[in-house]
Amino acid sequence: MSVQTWTWILVGITFALYFGIAIWARAGSTKDFYVAGGGVSPLANGMATAADWMSAASFISMAGLISFMGYDGSVFLMGWTGGYVLLALLLAPYLRKFGKFTVPDFIGDRYYSNTARTVAVICALIVSFTYVAGQMRGVGIVFSQFLQVDINLGVIIGMAIVLVFAFLGGMKGITYTQVAQYCVLIFAFMVPAFFISMQMTGNIIPQLGMGGSVEGGEFLLDKLDKLHTQLGFNEYTSGTKSTWDVFAITLALMVGTAGLPHVIVRFFTVPKVKDARKSAGLALLFIAILYTTAPAIAVFARTNLIETVSNTEYKQVPQWFKNWEDTGLIAWSDKNGDGKIQYVAGKALDGKPAYTDARGAFGERMVSNANDSANELYVDRDIMVLANPEIAKLPNWVIALVAAGGLAAALSTAAGLLLVISTSISHDLIKKQIKPNISEKGELLAARIAILVAIIIAGLFGIYPPGFVAAVVALAFGLAAASFFPAIILGIFDKRMNRQGAVAGMIVGIVLMLYYMIVYKTGLIGVMDPRPKSEWWFGTSPEGFGTIAMLVNVVVSVVVSRMTPAPPQHVQEIVENIRIPSGAGEAHSH
Fold this sequence. Notes:
By secondary structure, the chain is mainly alpha-helical. 68% of the residues lie in helices and 4% in strands. The protein has helices spanning 3-24, 30-35, 42-53, 56-69, 74-98, 103-110, 114-146, 151-201, 206-209, 220-230, 243-258, 261-264, 273-309, 319-325, 384-391, 396-434, 440-463, 469-493, 499-522, 545-563, 569-578, 586-589; strands at 330-332, 349-359, 365-370, 377-379.
């Protein structure tokens, strides 16, 4: 059967499963809608957390980024897994004991102020929209390639699907669909990895295959380093980033993870504080399966790409290349007219390829906006994982499986984020501030309307995307690190921390991060280009700047709180109580 038939079958089966679960787990109350009724087992919650967490960025983009960045890509692995350890030890149990549904809820109550709650809602919306933009783009890419539709139409189909199961089940529907999505995405990620590892190194375990040797006894990584240096790239296994920047990016991703509202809310869906710790540990285990495999996939894909495409005549280029050419995610511009694809260091094009329908002398799609570097090949990083099984000539059902896995990854995270956006609006703005006596039915309706509006905005971001998936997502972590993390951590561990300090810190942190992002990453649209690397503050990249913004936030918070009155006594007692293990104080109270 063709890849397309297999894709329809596998995507059809998995979607039927998700819809079945969403209908079975319909939300009847706001507690069901926000935290799945608080009765999810640690194992199911661990899987759901892993699916929520492993977005299109983890599934589609991360291995692609690592395959182009080489050693420098390791910051994503360290930061994104390290953040989970931080979350499990420092935040999850205490927030669970505090017993609030959402991050703005915790901040509003801990800092006894609706201003703090509103600032937190605004930060949650900025972080969630930045993050969800990347997911929608991922959905569009998968649909466009495997169902042969336009990327924008793919985004719209994705929007409709997420809407159904977020709308029906809220957190309850999303939790159980995410358990199913975890199983689909991990199976889809691992099967091609086993195949390709076996094919290239004779070792079925990809993590070991990556360090193994290929035909002729040469180590795979040595071979890739040689291929890289021959083409003028830096060695794959050596980094170009400064030690400080690696540290800054890793820390920003770590504390950003620990401050991500859609991950924190997962710890309210389990019955007890102990279960929150347990599910964080299980989630880390489930995530590690994918995260330790990604660098191996990156190495296999990179080696295969260079060996099958570089210096090959276009007439003999494999079929997968031509398939992906039609999506606009890979392009060749024959600059020297020799009919061969020359892949060397340097940018092939300025910006995205501008296609015409004309065909060149060798049957290639004509592409304009080339620049003067010698490199003739343009590859969008987001396609490496999706194209990998085709590059390695794996069976059609494996190629289709990867498509189903990519959709599961993007949809599970998009659903979790949309829920954060809707609860921030219905629970933290409407119920807690604008209309406190709203009925439960009215609040559910508000949450569903908020989801509808959020999906439309997210879809627009997917259709007019800012950069490729993982880069956009990395910036969302910087925003979470700069705004939420200090307010949460100081709220738990510093009882002298008051509302003036928290509000000042959050505002300064997020404004600073947004400013740096706009000036050094995106440029003021139409007015100026992004500032060059030589002007970065302290040599810090935009992805790593969350670390500096977070430190500024902490300093501002602490200084302002010490210059203003202490929080009321009952708030200080709450902070004392959060840190006492449950069950510790009971013996003395009788």
